[in-house]
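Hey,

The postdoc asked me to send both predictions to you directly instead of through the lab channel. I've kept everything plain text so nothing gets mangled by the mail client. Protein one:
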Amino acid sequence: MLNVPLTYDEATSHYKASYREFINMHLVTANVHILNSILRKFFVETFIDNTFFLRFDNLIAQLAFLIFSWLLCKDAFRNIFWRVSIFMLLNLNPFAFEFWGLSRGYGLATAFMLMSMYYIYRYIQIQHTRLQYLSLACAGLAVYSNFTLLNFYFSLCLVILIEPYLRSTAPKPKLSLQKIKPVLICTLVLLALITWPLYKLVKQNQFFYGGDTGFFQDTVISLVKMSIYAAPPNQALVKIIAYVIVGSFITIGIFWAYTFFKKERKPVNMHGIISYLLLAFCCIAIVLQHWLTGTKYLLDRTGIFLITLYIWQLGCFLHYFGSSKYTPVITGAIVFCSGLNFFKNLNFDQTQLWWFNKYDRLIVNRIISESNDGRKKINLRTDWLFSLPMNQDISIRYPGRIEKIEWIDHPPNRDTFYDYYYISSSDMKYVSPRYKIDTCLLNGLYCLLKKE
């Protein structure tokens, strides 16, 4: 994101700590995505502590995603039309695109997941154990980037274990130790890395972000809404698209079950069945966790990896009917609509989820430019949403000019200590009459007030 200021969640997870403290989850918050924090620390200490290098690991992850999505399409589809079409679909979601430019673990996790998918498909083709290890290792790194990818890791392990039964036409195929060994080794290594951080997060009740209504309402609806940047008047469109997605998913599942019981074991069938099962097992795992343990349903950003899984299994299904004259037309129409939605909503100035941080730099610049006495530190109080990212920005661009902004989650009390307030317009009634409006932003939701 070229011009997006540091967002609240990025600032929350960016703090001074050793590699060991990040690994052991020294600061117990779900905002700390371990692998992202480790890589971010490396880049800002090796180069410069600024917004670009804070987000540099995710820019690299985007490059990896582009490369491996092309390799995956090249491996699965011989026809250039299908390669390009599915490649574009995988990369034309504006909501997912935002996370390539943010210092969070979601983009990093999605890139590792796609790499894992590429290696498991290669493994299914040539049955080299090395590829199985690579697939599991990438899935493990995806989990280490963001713990919601445990759902994908679970799905991948199940697919590896049942793959001999999917492939074989024999009455009683056998599951060899050679198949089980990589799963056991990689899972034990992953558990050694994540058990202690997970325990801390669960104990501190940090997995509070999500929904309790239902998988469709919370996960599917939120992902569709974010993917098309739907405003409140477009809720009917969101539901229509969500129902189409669920309907297509059920239909595709019935079709692959039919081909499986007909004992069709062509490579194109295996690609389709495996891609479908990876998504299906993820959905089942999410629902079962909620039913059995009360874990929240994934919501918007926490379920972003499901977008890639859905698009891929849809592409494999459409490709199966590639010889039909209607299928390329349908696929082309989907790509066209996706491209239109992508470029219509492409934004390099703000994010959907952290829209309130859009003008943070502008506010800081305005305060600095209005301050005539560079020797006196400016006292600024902000709404809690702005305190952490503004502190980060000030420490990098204007060190020593503004006092550290305190994180305060209650309205002002008419004190006159501060030189400026940047607060919600609904809290302005609690401010002393000595403060006058300097400027209002975000459709008047937040205002900068200056002491006269």
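Protein two:
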Amino acid sequence: MKTSFVCTAAAVFALVGCGTIFAVRDSDVRSAQEKKDLDFLKKVCSGDLRTSGGSEQHSACQAIKEIEGESLAENVDSADCGTLEKSLESSVVRNVDQLAKIGVKLVKCGKANLVFEDLAARGDFGTRASGFQILMKIEDSGVNLAEEFVKYAQSNAGPQFMAAAPRPGKNNLKFAINHISLWLDARKHYNHCSALVPVVRDASEDVKLHTLIYFANGQCKDAVPFGVELLSHSKPEYRKIACSNLGVFGDTSVVPKLEIVAETDSAYEIVNLNKIYYVRDICRASTGKIKLRAK
């Protein structure tokens, strides 16, 4: 009597009855991910199946996260808030659109803080970062995210506002406040200026630096002292940004200090064998802009 074998992906690589014992290759992991063969991927991830010695085990573990993340994102509406919060901790979801869907649900769950402390902190500085894109997509879904941020900011005001990482291993919140400020500026939420100035006043210099573009473009005059404060910062990049933004919303009262920086700042770079005092140049240009506006 003949015995027939049904060889699953895992069995092929583990049982002599299915033939030679093979080492798992990257192509096998990719194939299993496409088929969403979690049983096989978990065996590779746990080390139960022999690999070729490359990145197969790591790739399998990552594939599991991606499959579970996709499944969670597809069922966000039915997922409970605790599950969604844990998904951020384990980073099982990485797609920007999926993270935005989770962010919408978190706001509805009363967990908007996780949007600002975790989702907004993702990526590097600038508008190309996933944190910025997530905020834009959450707001596009109909959530009044600006109001939520104002409430969050006012309830967390103080020196530690946006000053530390939310959890070990997570991005420092200076990325979050950079993305939040760029988002508020991009969407022209300048009507919240008066509510946010008192919060930023007691915050760190990093928070003042990254919110300066929002305050400057929104002509939030009460925030001008933040820029003046940064003119004496030890880092030339901070002085440069302060000079640039003061040129946008500063008035003649800041001209004397801008002129001092324009004459004495020591930061320079070498361009074609010449010293370029770039902070001085930007402060000098901002001084001119303010004087022109005053005439």
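Summary for protein two, as requested: Residues 56-74 form the longest helix (19 residues).

Thanks,
C.
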